[in-house]
Amino acid sequence: MKQMKNKILTLVMTSVTVMSVLGGCGRNESKQTTYKQYGVNALENGQYKEAIKSLDSALKQSNGKVGKKEIEICFYKGEAQYLSGDAKGAIKTYTSLINYDNNAKAYYLRGNVYLSQSQEKKAINDYKKALEEDEKDYELYIGIYNSLANDGEEKEAKEYLNKALNIDKNKAYDKMQKGRIYNLLGKKDKAIGLLKEAIDDGEKEAYFYLGDIYADSSKKSDKDEANKNFKKHMEESDLSSEEYYRFGKSLMKEDKYGYSLSYFLNGLKLEEVPNKQALMKKAISAYEHTGDFKSAKELMKKYVESYPSDEAAKSEYVFLKTR
């Protein structure tokens, strides 16, 4: 059975368009990592076709072997295909992942693609399949809620949140996730109470979600609480540069630019920053949104020196010089 699953996912990996600079037929983990990171950076910078090309090359380095790295690369490829407008290609990639091991995340993401194509029945079916594979994954419930709510199906979306509240666990992690869910349901006090319990029980990530709730308020005291909790989250958690990026990007999506900037800048301070380009780009954008054009210009100068092939950044740098 495992051999058959390898053959299924290999269909995605062997049908790639390989960059002409590739050579050799053995597995090359160093090249794979380089191509993957370049592809991820291109994805984050909105260069979707370039991302797909590089991720295809990363997959080719596996020489047909399938492991966690190849599966992760396939997920990035599916995202790049979807964002490039190639819904058909994204569905094909996610379907291959599903055929490989009934991956719950792949079901969910394929459902999102179907939903974007107004194929609601297929989307709902995939969401149900995802939860059948992992019925206690809070992130799936929250993700499905966000997808359906953004599509205007608020009532149906909330049904998934209520299902997640029925997960019969009461550890610190569960309290944190249920706190997030109560906040989405508009029950702020209940959410804050559970998040504080989660923190007391040792769940440091709960600091982030508690800060996120306080950041929604216009009260100075709440703004201070937001800053306090975000600071605690960054100080007490051993975050990688990718995690700093993820949390900062989450805040940026909510137009919380000042808070997101702190995450991007702290990510850039780490010794190992494989996603430095993406962090710098987001930090520049956050500076601009907060009105700090001087800092944006200074960071952009460093960015274009480090990544001279980014033509869009060069044009933006010219603009920033006029501010």
From TrEMBL:
<dbReference type="InterPro" id="IPR050498">
    <property type="entry name" value="Ycf3"/>
</dbReference>
<keyword id="KW-0802">TPR repeat</keyword>
<dbReference type="Pfam" id="PF00515">
    <property type="entry name" value="TPR_1"/>
</dbReference>
<dbReference type="GO" id="GO:0009279">
    <property type="term" value="C:cell outer membrane"/>
</dbReference>
<dbReference type="Pfam" id="PF13174">
    <property type="entry name" value="TPR_6"/>
</dbReference>
<dbReference type="Pfam" id="PF13432">
    <property type="entry name" value="TPR_16"/>
</dbReference>
<dbReference type="InterPro" id="IPR011990">
    <property type="entry name" value="TPR-like_helical_dom_sf"/>
</dbReference>
<dbReference type="InterPro" id="IPR019734">
    <property type="entry name" value="TPR_rpt"/>
</dbReference>
<protein>
    <submittedName>
        <fullName>Tetratricopeptide repeat-containing protein</fullName>
    </submittedName>
</protein>
<feature type="repeat" description="TPR">
    <location>
        <begin position="104"/>
        <end position="137"/>
    </location>
</feature>
<dbReference type="Pfam" id="PF13181">
    <property type="entry name" value="TPR_8"/>
</dbReference>
<dbReference type="GO" id="GO:0046813">
    <property type="term" value="P:receptor-mediated virion attachment to host cell"/>
</dbReference>
<keyword id="KW-0677">Repeat</keyword>
